[in-house]
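User: Can you write out an input/output pair for a complex, sequences first and structure second?

Assistant: Here is one pair. Inputs:
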Amino acid sequence: MNDGSASPHRPPRTDLTQITEAVAAADADAFVAVGDRFDDDLRYLTRAAGSDRASALVVTPSEDAGGRAVYCVPSALRERAERRFVEAARDRDGGFHDSISREVRTDRAGDHAGERATGVVRDLIGDAGGDGTALVPASIPHDAAVYLERAGNELASTDAVATARSLKTDAEIDRLGRIQRAAVAGVSRARTVLAESAVEGARPTGDDRPDRRPALRWDGSPLTAERLRRAVNVALAAEGVGDAGDTAIGVGGSATSHRRAGTTDIRPGETVVVGVSPRGPDGYHGDLTRTFVVDGDGGWERRASVAVEAAREAALAEVEPGTPVATVGGEAAAELAAYGFDPNPEPGEAGATGEPVRGVGLSRCEAPSGGTELRPGHVIAVEPGVRDPTVGRVRLGDLVVVTDDGYEPLAEHPLGIAPEPR
Amino acid sequence: MNDGSASPHRPPRTDLTQITEAVAAADADAFVAVGDRFDDDLRYLTRAAGSDRASALVVTPSEDAGGRAVYCVPSALRERAERRFVEAARDRDGGFHDSISREVRTDRAGDHAGERATGVVRDLIGDAGGDGTALVPASIPHDAAVYLERAGNELASTDAVATARSLKTDAEIDRLGRIQRAAVAGVSRARTVLAESAVEGARPTGDDRPDRRPALRWDGSPLTAERLRRAVNVALAAEGVGDAGDTAIGVGGSATSHRRAGTTDIRPGETVVVGVSPRGPDGYHGDLTRTFVVDGDGGWERRASVAVEAAREAALAEVEPGTPVATVGGEAAAELAAYGFDPNPEPGEAGATGEPVRGVGLSRCEAPSGGTELRPGHVIAVEPGVRDPTVGRVRLGDLVVVTDDGYEPLAEHPLGIAPEPR
């Protein structure tokens, strides 16, 4: 999986022969992708971050060489596209590492990206192509698809990009490890803030239910979920990574709909789920979740924590090549049930998607999933959790990379629910 | 433009009659949108942040009431969707503010969102619809469009959502003002860091060209573009907003491709363009750009700064209802030319898109643009700039809201290039 681009100063490289081979296997003429800066397929294929305006990529096998790739971008993107799509893909001798030649085009930049892609397809496959077939990701924008079809191209959808993205190279695993270490810094900051928090300057209410106790105070004022979220995001920013809008602080068991998220005071004995999924400069996501309780009473949250730790262990023990993704999540659920917890009390409690196991990379949620068998190079989040709406919730989430005979965690953070100072 | 939801604790409200009227005007039966959490049309229409899995929205006029809107989400999204799409759209009496009834569906959550939307269209328009017409945004995912077409629906594209989004309500302007004030805090932090930086502990090289001078030092070590970026992002995080991956620090005139972005030392006399476009909790973007020079020699950067300030003034003087967006940018360009600068030295130098004037809202780049005439409620970024690759670049960017007789800035930050301490 060494792709020769482990240097942090250049983007990981994408082997576009994965695409030309899919084109050949489907007896198609070209692969076409169209999307804006939120399109992670294009980001993977081009290694450029894209633009608010749609760009297009056309890849074709060619007889005389490995193939050709043309990236049509808005003018504003030319320099970055040249640098990241073309120059970063060159070997020292100036050739392209995968023998697919790359070029950036900014002509007809005012036209729709689908129209530009159609022109490039015509240009590259010419008469040889005739009424050819273009492989496209299934969710290509409809207007782009219509441009291609009107020009006589048959469209066939492909999951070649999703599959390629799911199998991480060494350089990608390096980036995922870096961002996951930043995620550790973010969660550690939450742990420290909670460890530094105490009940002071407030009289007990005489009611010992957690949500009636006086709030924790930190740095001179009540500790709210929003203050904790900001502290985490400041720590992430100091690491040089963005929170990607995905730092979530879940207090207690009730849904945030019933307890206004930002202004919720955090009280002793309440479960505090801290989930972060920062994004690094090359676009890769981390994913780490821990649960803390300040001054817990050793009741439900202790039992839940033991069960979730056991579920995590059981799930991770299944992680190896050949195991279907769903089996890993199933192991976690079975273990939670064995401990007497409802393994699926609320669809979607487990992080971004409701699934306790999912692929992570340029997207926070990508392949592999479901029945797909794990392969070396898959990077997955394993994230079991339980929730009792009247008491609390506990969740533990980690990123691991599948190896030849098991897995390796991408970074480590203690599991305990008592927030120890750093 | 008061929509009764100016409270910061609830999302701005979207008047879905803008959609039912478009459906009626096109003699169509329903409006359908499909997208994931990066789809800002869906975010606008539903006020929910979406999910990594695609969701679908179907809106139909109805004879007995104003209309119906059904939001099909993954199970994981139900609580948030109910809260933000349904509950936040109710008036005190429990009715919907725009007389469009709203519901969230999580049935068939395993099916493709396009398939679910197709089922809802059949359900809502029934036999009355027959082989109906569905209005869709032009860039609806192709696979979703195919589901709709195969079920007998004709598709027609609409820009009703883009138009509705471009006309901001009071509550939306309130959110944009908040996030723009956070943007001011971010740029102010950069200004402070630069004001605190100095040349010390380093001997002059004897060569007075800016890029040969000793680097600035801040807080004990050389000030790099990456350190400045982190300081800005820490300030944004402390304000409770995310940098959205869009904080850009441009040092000098040469492209970052030639001077490795993150590790570039900042030197006295070099132009430093600081551009931020943070995103707030309701999804709205700020947009602010300033240029600083530490210890400038009063040469090119002073002349450029005078020209760009004049261009900014000239452009803003054109901002009023009835003026085409392109005219505002044209005024800036004419003024730069009058000062002897190439108004378009490098396509795309102006921020996100290469256009000196563009709409900003849930997307960093949205309507209005080009020949569209300004209307009250449009929020636009006005961002003139110049660049000489051998010397430096200067850019000033602000967000303003179009009013009945001109414009109001959404927040203010000084224009000067000498970084004064706060």
